[in-house]
Amino acid sequence: MDLVGIEDVEAAAHRIAGLVVRTPLLSARWAREGSPLELKPESLQPTGAFKLRGASNAVARLDAEARARGVVTHSSGNHAQALAWAARAVGVRASIVMPEGASPTKIEATRALGAEVVLVPAAERESAADQIAARRGAVVVSPYDHRDVIAGQGTVGLEIVADRPDADTVLVPASGGGLVAGVAVALKARRPQARVIAVEPELAGDLAESMQRGERVRWSEEQTSRTIADGLRVTQVGALPWEHIRVLVDEVMTVSEEEIRAAMRLLAHGSRLVVEPSGAVAVAAYLSCTPARRLGRTVAVVSGGNVEPALLREVLGADLR
């Protein structure tokens, strides 16, 4: 399988410059002594998540004929908004298939960006998107299983290396695997000694099991739907991301639901960042490490901030009263 290379990520960086925010690294003043931590706040992107990078690169790569046919995807919310934003910017029709249980905030935000939203049972997302593509001739832009998307997400890694060339560990949320695959491509090319650690919820730990078995494992919708991290409920890592992850990612960590909630609270109070559960898992992994485990200079990717207001109130509890 032809893997994404550093030249693809660098080309994506040039292609999307000016279309996305080049997010800074923020020092976490609350980090443990001897374990410096910096945050890569992709929650500051216009659509609230890193997904804008991959979607913008994929749309920019379409020729005129493909743009005329429109784009379609399936997403629980963040890729939905990203593709809708990128498509609207160049006048391309976007159809987004979303699970019926998706965040109402993310559904309405996607519609507000001018995309058609089709709601289906969670297990039918991919097949529904394929049916729309077949009927209309639309181009499918997968949330993660797509070379241009992986290359676009890899620009997160390029920026980390540029700003922190001596990074020892980079913690990256993982589900479909596009983000951690892209970041690993960039990190291993520019800072090969740095460890890339994928992080996912314990209740959606298909990637951790896949790494243990040496092959992709599929979890059920019933299993992954238990986690609060709605953006990480994909039941199986993508085929293309997996080929990158199995050779470039050093480790997979899983975090508990309470660890995710605690990370959300700490990010809100300690770093003034509103972060969705999926975006907090990398920080949760950092917090779960004992002092005996030395991560060195660490960067945690805060992948998104599109949290339901009701959930944010629940997680912060009395802090918002």
In words, what does this structure look like?
α1 crosses α2 (51-60). The protein starts with 5 loop residues before the first helix and ends in a 5-residue tail after the last helix. It folds into two domains: 6-49 and 148-320, 3-Layer(aba) Sandwich (Rossmann fold), CATH 3.40.50.1100; 52-143, Rossmann fold. The chain is built from 15 helices and ten strands. It has 321 residues and is an alpha/beta fold. It has a six-stranded mixed sheet, with helices on both faces. Strands 5-4-3-6 form a four-stranded parallel sheet, sandwiched between helices. The mean pLDDT is 95. Helix content is 45%, strand content 14%.
Could you give a quick summary of the protein structure above?
This protein has 321 residues and is α/β, with parallel strands linked by helices. It has 15 helices and 10 strands. Strand 4 (94-99), helix 5 and strand 5 (116-120) form a beta-alpha-beta unit.
- Going by helix content, strand content and strand pairing, the class is alpha/beta
Q: Can you list the strand order of the major beta sheet? A: 1-2-10-7-8-9
CATH architecture of the largest domain: 3-Layer(aba) Sandwich
- How many beta-strand elements? 10
Count of helix runs? 15
Q: What is the percent of helical residues?
A: 40-55%
The N- to C-terminal Cα distance equals 53 Å
The H/E string reads HEEHHEHEHEHEHHEHEHHHEHHEH
Strand content: 5-15%
The tally of structural domains comes to 2
* CATH third-tier fold name of the largest domain: Rossmann fold
pLDDT < 50 runs, ≥5 residues: none
CATH class identity of the largest domain: Alpha Beta
